[in-house]
């Protein structure tokens, strides 16, 4: 184990050097989070398909339980049960548009993880930083349970549990638990837990802050203990179901899956689940007693339970939907937690946008009208009114609006349009619009993936370290 | 599948060019043996341990269901359910003794397989050819079901089912079904099915030929059909038991295994099996209702059923022991088939040597006295007398002896000594003599292996081809 422990120390030191200005010491925060014994227990795995440029390089790392697809290089890092999904990387020859620039992509984009420790983290999407088109880097970074690093290069950062950094390049930042940041480029910031921040410089700025005392019921994290709260309890309670999925090599699909849909073999499907055409269910998704209509998707770490998704629904990474009826074309952002009750269903009307990191947790039936924008903490009708607006009304904002804990500045139209375009892009990329011929996406391309497993040295000084592994076409 | 089919054609052509002088066309023989659909169905796997120098390079090959350990490079080849076990390769710095030469080993020995098609073949042991110490090559070679390539570099050869080439470098040879060759160096030979040939040039020459009409009941192979006969029926009947073993990632040992023994997780262990100290059970071994005493071993493709092995028993690759009681220190050579019956047990006395490729198949109880040498086909007491001698008497041969279908020339002492030394070496290498401190061998070193799985492209032109994979420390 010697090398594994040395590697851990090395990573912590490097991150702390980066965060010295913020006076953030990552060591007490993560030192007990994953016992080294756990790091030797689980195999890592990578996908092989003809549709994804294959170039995986693993060096001097532990990859326990992690998943890789596409072009990815990992060096001197600890990746614990993380997903590195490189199926939307830019390709050589692509032309990247940024403002007035048309920048040619010089070589296939690569996700490059160095000197980092990622715990149950999702890395996905292509990076949008025009400064580093070919290299989506994650360096000197520690991230914790269910963090999303979404198209966001990171250098010298710490991400708290259930945080998301989206299409944002960050340097020397601390992202608090359940904070969501989509801000283009940030550096030397300490973002408070429960901040939801969407900024397009010169265009708009959306900012919401969870009341901390309420947020702590859902997610609370302090040095010395693992993350706590409803979010953790919820996933821990369903952990066992994944064991069988990971312990069997060939698994039969427990439900019938249309030829146009894809159900990842590492997803958990409980009884009474229906999967429609063009549906995409990613690995580590959990479906139970639910119906996914045409073109709906369930991304990594999603839980959809006792719910109906009418169609073209985006359920972004880590979102949970329980006892709910979702209309057509409803978007549910990252790590949102939407919980109705068996006797108090949650209904969300068509074409609504549930912002990333939204909590709807009700005891009485609640209906979100069609075409709504919802954010923040909603536990009843009053909170819904405080934390939502119709997209139509939101579009009318010209300069500024303050509502409850939310402050918006800039153009509402830009904001709403940006969201809608993005939702359209996600659906398109996922293959929701596939017509049997055109608009093929992940749902059609990811149907037939071969998975290879890799494991570390089982004993000796190198126990827990993976050998150098290079996989190329 | 295009590339896979092109690769097949390419290999066949290369082998045929090598075998043109023998007028042997390998194409009709193997063209239907493994449907290409089968080649995409099974994962390959390789072992990671701190005890075996790790250097695996796979390029432009299909490795379906095959296993790899140690230092090995595979290029332009099809390996179907084969075992490439590189745990006895020579190491850099070793001194290799050959006659009056002391040859330093320049670099770690590597098993190098190029342009070959191996079906259910075992490749093991280090090559004994002083001309190629660092490279155990298998080139332009086709081998079929349950062939053993044991320390035998091969260039331009065809091996029939259940054949074994042992410590022999071969060029442009055809080895018939169930032929056993241990002859140092051979070229441009067509060895008949059922030949058992052990030669040490200048020292001795042992030659036995199975009566073909009898052998055909056990193994018969002609172009256009898969191998047939009792041997094939026997393994096919037990095939299903392996499915579970290969379909589960973490498997619990079904029996208690002493700390000094090793039971491979890809072996099948049926109820009422006892495993003693220092026992080695390799992958693809099958044990049922049997007892393996201290230091006994069961190598790849062995079946031990309703039998007792007293201790220090070598059960070489592919040997089968059914309804038998084996005394201490009994050696059973490659692919031997020893079948008693529930009401007619086979007893083999201590320190006997059952030659490779021996068939003992009885309907009435039979006892082989201690210290015997047994060869060929033995179905009753008469055939036992025709096809065995005491090792003591055999040692007395000075020039020549002919007995039944067996002809021996040379020194009986040399022959017996060579066998006994080899048996001692095998037991030593396998860890049979481990005393808790000294004499550690495979049984102690192979206890804790991590297995990684690899799979081919699931579709497209490259369907069935494995990506390039390089694994290094």
From TrEMBL, chains A, B:
Pfam families: Hexapep_loop (PF18776). It comes from the Bacteria. This is Transferase. It comes from Desulfosarcina alkanivorans.
